[in-house]
Automatic annotation (TrEMBL):
Domain FecR protein as annotated: residue spans: 113-208
Protein name: FecR family protein
Organism from which the protein derives: Sunxiuqinia elliptica
Keyword Magnesium: no
Keywords annotated in UniProt: Membrane, Transmembrane, Transmembrane helix
């Protein structure tokens, strides 16, 4: 197996015969299969224009995984090392910023749009004293009016807000058909497109949820989570595991009594994958655990498999998200 073949596989330029040779080799060794997914993780990071990675750090991380196989080392591990260098070299010319920022100004209204791609977390400062973290696959539009002092955010995805409260300059986050009004606080809002529920978790301070007409729905206390069901407009209040909810900002997956289905949705938002359940009964299996986000989806699923009868296979799709089948 040559290093240029690995690069061709990951870039989607390999012939059918080359693919057959490559995957037949992987099937004979679990260690080689694991290294393949490490390589693919690195490839994804350098092949998307909006990723910004520390190349030395990524190489060092990959080398550590390869060096764990010292007792089994053969030419294949040297080949993977060379392939990693090739991948990073290919990526040097296409690396960009972590998020996209667009500015428009109309009649004293300033509009800025930010986006965190899959597999990344962005940190932005929209005004002095107000910081926002954007989770993977999140888009946020920030609109400010210097004349009136209004500050508005339109969110699709997940973000954690640390807002400096200014009485004459209200800060409102719009997600779906509700508004979250800040009164000097730190809070997390999860509102991914396609999700029926919008989750608002108050970490400290005060926030109030209001409907489209501006009528108050609920005031949150620190440590509470409000879950708004868009289809029924019902709102329920629960105690929140704040450290688990905000763990994404620290580069971790933290699952606390979460169903496999909801975990898979999180994995879809972070990795370039889609899930399909061929075993319907396992959707509601409950998990609790903590895993670093810097690992691969293959590794995460292996960890989940330890505690249940979960089985999975990954079908790679060059040019599109891989398909993960749970059975």
């Amino acid at each position: 197996m040559e290093s240029n073949l690995i690069a061709k596989i990951l870039s989607g330029t390999a012939t059918e015969d080359e693919k057959s040779e490559y995957y037949n080799t992987l099937q004979k060794s679990q260690a080689k299969e694991e290294l393949h997914y490490e390589m693919k993780n690195l490839w994804v990071k350098v092949s998307k224009k909006k990723y910004d990675i520390d190349k030395k750090k990524e190489l060092a991380s990959l080398w550590r995984h390869i060096d764990k196989k010292k007792s089994q080392r053969t030419n294949i591990y040297r080949v993977f090392r060379y392939a990693a260098i090739v991948i990073l070299a290919l990526g040097v010319g296409i690396l960009g910023t972590l998020y996209v920022r667009q500015n428009t100004t109309t009649a004293n209204i300033i509009s800025q749009t930010y986006k965190a791609e899959k597999g990344s977390v962005a940190k932005i400062e929209v005004d002095e004293g107000t910081t926002i973290w954007l989770n993977s696959a999140t888009e946020l539009r920030y609109i400010s009016n210097p004349e009136t002092g209004e500050r508005k955010v339109y969110l699709s995805g997940e973000a954690l807000f640390d807002v400096k409260h200014v009485a004459e300059s209200p800060f409102v986050v719009y997600a779906g058909n509700i508004g979250i009004y800040d009164f000097g606080t730190t809070f997390n809002v999860k509102a991914y497109k396609g999700n029926q529920e919008i989750e608002t978790t108050l970490i400290e301070g005060n926030v109030e949820l209001r409907d489209e007409a501006g009528r108050s729905l609920l005031a949150l206390n620190p440590g509470q989570i409000a879950i708004y069901e868009q289809s029924s407009t019902r709102l329920r209040l629960e105690e929140a595991n704040v450290s688990a909810i905000a763990a994404w900002r620290e580069g971790k997956f933290v699952f606390h009594n979460k169903s496999l289905e909801s975990i898979c949705k999180e994995l879809e938002n972070w990795y370039d994958v889609e899930f399909r359940f061929d075993n319907e009964e396992i959707r509601e299996e409950i998990y609790t655990g903590k895993i670093k986000r810097s690992t691969t989806v293959h590794y995460v699923l292996k960890m989940l498999k330890i505690t249940t009868n979960l089985n999975f296979k990954i079908i790679e799709k060059p040019g599109g998200p891989d398909l993960v089948i749970i059975y």
